[in-house]
Design brief:
alpha+beta, Endonuclease I-creI, four-stranded antiparallel sheet, 12 helices, about 55% helix, about 15% strand
């Protein structure tokens, strides 16, 4: 069964180049737990797309924090998820500091090195991040639940050069990106290089397809214009041929008029090549305009 783009990114984060510093690994675990769902009884719950993703998340948390992780299946209609219920065996001092009113004063404790914030964001995305299919309109979102968590995460993202937009939904605050460049910057922040290449390739394919469609539409419009112009020219020439002005036309104009009647579907370039000697496209266009102007003397409605 194919996996979603969001699942691919989370798999890349959890299986790929995890933070090397202990402080950064701890910050990534903080991000996972800070953005997880909190049940009414105070339990921390993380929703995984499948058992494989659940195993990776549980293994990472157990290796970084003193915690117990219980796994259970959840199904609602066609939606099937795996829930991880996390119980911390120690008092979560980091969470108290993270939610402290004087958040700035806690930054040195929470994020000791310059890379910790980035690791925190990676954990937050694994916990609650979603991205739309890259072949469609882009939308990346992180659900935060708590207003305070949303404010803290937004502040961190702004410091990292990826300021998000925010929206309040029925299940809490959500930070999101809709602009393609902003989503690319966010994936770069996650070190999700495979996903970034997938996104860029989809963008290139979309641009190629759009350019081809525009070219085809332009060609269609040009053909339609040529057909309309040819029909007007042919009507004007027939009117001249049936009038007393025909014999008085210069030989060059009569030759062009006869060729247009014989080849009503020919383009200007094709019609110019049928002349002996060959004439230029602009020269041909001048002759056809002259024929149309003369025909107006007979019937003013001819354009």
């Amino acid at each position: 069964m194919s996996i979603s783009f969001s699942e691919e990114i989370k798999k890349e984060i959890l299986e790929g180049d995890l933070p090397k510093g202990e402080c950064c690994r701890r910050a990534m675990a903080y991000g996972l737990l800070a953005c997880a769902d909190i049940t009414p009884d105070g339990s921390i719950v993380i929703s995984a797309a499948n058992g494989e993703e659940a195993q990776r998340i549980a293994g990472f948390l157990r290796s970084r924090m003193a915690c117990n992780v219980e796994q259970s299946d959840y199904r609602r209609g066609r939606v099937s998820r795996v829930l991880l219920r996390v119980t911390l065996r120690k008092r979560a001092e980091w969470m108290e500091r993270f939610l402290d009113d004087d958040f700035d004063a806690q930054l040195a404790y929470l994020f000791p090195c310059p890379h910790c914030r980035q690791s925190f964001v990676r954990g937050a995305f694994v916990a609650q991040g979603t991205v739309s299919d890259p072949t469609r309109e882009l939308h990346l979102e992180i659900s935060c639940g708590s207003d305070t968590v949303a404010q803290r995460l937004e502040s961190i993202l702004c410091e990292l050069g990826c300021p998000p937009k925010n929206v309040l939904r029925h299940n809490g605050q959500h930070l999101y990106y809709k602009n393609g460049s902003a989503v690319e910057d966010f994936l770069t922040l996650l070190n999700a290089n495979k996903a970034l290449f997938t996104l860029i390739n989809a963008k290139i394919e979309r641009e190629i397809r759009n350019n081809a469609n525009r070219a085809a539409n332009c060609e269609t419009r040009n053909i339609q214009k040529a057909i309309v112009a040819s029909a007007k020219q042919t009507d004007a020439i027939r009117l001249l041929r049936d009038s007393e002005l025909w014999e008085g036309l210069p030989e060059q104009l009569r030759t062009t008029a006869q060729l247009r009647l014989e080849h009503p579907d020919a383009t200007l370039s094709e019609l110019a090549l049928l002349h002996e000697p060959v004439i230029t496209k602009s020269g041909l266009n001048h002759r056809l305009q002259k024929l149309t102007e003369i025909a107006k003397e007979i019937q003013p409605k001819v354009e």
